[in-house]
Amino acid sequence: MKRVRITSRLVALMVVTLVGAGACALDPQAGGGGGGGAAPAGAAEQPTGASGTSGPDQRGRPTTTAPTPKATSATPKPRPKPTRTTPAPTTSTAAPAAGCPQGEHQRGVETYLARLGGFGPVTVDGRQSAADCAAIKKFQRRYGISPVEGRAGPTTHDVAQRLATTDPKRCKAGTGTTFCVDLTRQTVWAVRDGKVIMAPTVTRTGMSGYRTPAGTYRVNYRNPKEWSNPYEVWLPYWQHFTQGMGFHETTTYLHNKSIGSHGCVNLLHADAVRMWELGKVGTRVVLIGRRPGT
């Protein structure tokens, strides 16, 4: 009888132990709900994604807190699909933006740029386009016109017209290298043995009261950086040809016609450098025409 009672107690104790262990394993909330609690029995074997060693995304994280196990139900709840989708690109029927405003001299600038060439495609129709804008900006950058905005304004039109109507053949260059200046159009270029070696570019000569005289001269003195005593200013790439007048890089905005020079032939930086490279003492200088207003 005594043995029967002991046997019955042992059986009952085993049943309670098995039921308790089963409850921890099946209930996803049991045992692992607390931040620092021990992991439930057999949790390391469950497909929870947690492991006993740190993975690449766990480096440096505290290891005192056990990871919360995920649900292990055989039939996981369906996850809602995202409703946000990337909109498909739409094709606009509007004309592409030109990128710069249209100026009052649109057709004229288009005409002269098409004649000059070298600045990109332009359509001579009097209407601004992206291609026209790019060509006008390139032209403005080349000839130091400010601001560079692609607008066909008065200065851009004036410069384009002067360059497009300059005839290099009007300069009686002769043999060797010759610097030619069209005082009427305010342009300058270089010729060697009858061939243009520097295309016409812009200049600014003497203003009223300081007229640059037409005629044929020679470069008789050169200095890469000359100091002007009367005007107290440096004259870069100085090439003198007559009466204290010479070629040099401009010290002010070249397209400000109201001031002009005191007889010198002002040049943009790139053009002053190029003429310095081409010239030497003895280089022939031919000036034709007369600047308007002088």
From TrEMBL:
Pathway: Cell wall biogenesis; peptidoglycan biosynthesis
Domain of life, per lineage: Bacteria
Chain intervals for the UniProt region annotation (Disordered): 31-104
Swiss-Prot/TrEMBL keywords: Cell shape, Cell wall biogenesis/degradation, Peptidoglycan synthesis, Signal, Transferase
Residues annotated as domain L,D-TPase catalytic: 177-288
Protein name per the record: L,D-TPase catalytic domain-containing protein
Molecular functions per Gene Ontology: peptidoglycan L,D-transpeptidase activity; transferase activity
GO biological process entries: cell wall organization; peptidoglycan-protein cross-linking; regulation of cell shape
Active site positions: 248, 264
Cited SUPFAM superfamilies: L,D-transpeptidase catalytic domain-like (SSF141523), PGBD-like (SSF47090)
Gene Ontology CC: extracellular region
Comp. bias intervals (Low complexity): 61-76, 83-98
Residues that span the membrane, as ranges: none
Organism: Micromonospora acroterricola
Entry keyword annotation includes Cell wall biogenesis/degradation: yes
Signal peptide as annotated in the record: 1-25
